Amino acid sequence: MMPLSEWPMQARRAIRGVLTDIDDTLTTGGELTPDVLTALARLRAARVRLIAVTGRPTYWALPLLRLCRFDAVIAENGASAFWLDGEGRQQSLFYADISTRREHRRRLDAFALTLQARFPQVPVADDAPQRVADLAFDIGENMPRLASDQVDEITSFMRAHGFFATASSIHAHASLAAFSKQAMSARILDEVFGTDDASARQQFVFVGDSGNDASMFAHYPNAIGVANIAPFLGGLPVPPAYVTRLACGAGFVEVVNAILEARDEEK
Fold first, then answer.
1. Are residues 153 and 25 part of one domain?
2. What global pTM score does this model have?
3. Torsions phi, psi of 250, nearest 5?
4. How far from 91 is each of 44, 87, 94, 182, 192, CA to CA, in Å?
5. Mean pLDDT, to the nearest integer, of 242-246?
6. What are the strands of the beta sheet with 171-175, ordered from one edge?
């Protein structure tokens, strides 16, 4: 993992899109700061495609799509995706049909009681009612973040009960399907925006901060971690190629500056 300043200019100039996590990558202390909103506007003005790839729930995707003007929003770590077609109509894609999702929801809700009997200090996440595909538990959003070994114990417990599991900086997620940020990103880029995976790996940068971004860090050569990724590096099979100096939203702004400065030098 190298400092962002060592990201080659040639690679920066090839970037045509940004895939970004939300929590603790775009946000700082849970907020979208003015400098981040300005950075997003600068990307849009430069016609850089902008796609959010988040662990947040499906029903958070709609305001992100409309209000932040992302080209697409991928939610629940790849379980659902939303975008606007050429006529401005909202389109969506889900990991499974509605009957399957309802059955998964029933089993996840039952499992919540099992997990909380074992880990009574771990509450179900506040945003759980807005989810359609996974179940999230709070490990650091409204409480002091649990230690890494405690998070590992929780995700191991999920897997031992037949669930897929991952963890972000704030939530531990259980699901009954092996969706991922990377798989849904590749599908949306190809089927919606006409960018095949080989091209996307060269033309898109991914920015993230924690364990549920692992599939993206491993897949994209231009993957960048904001500085607050440091505590999670030990749990990543493949670290991001580059890391910013600053944390959270300020780190994201660093990435935007690096992309647009390279374009300015090219003129």
1. no
2. 0.94
3. -65, -35
4. 20, 11, 11, 20, 10
5. 98
6. 134-138, 171-175, 164-167
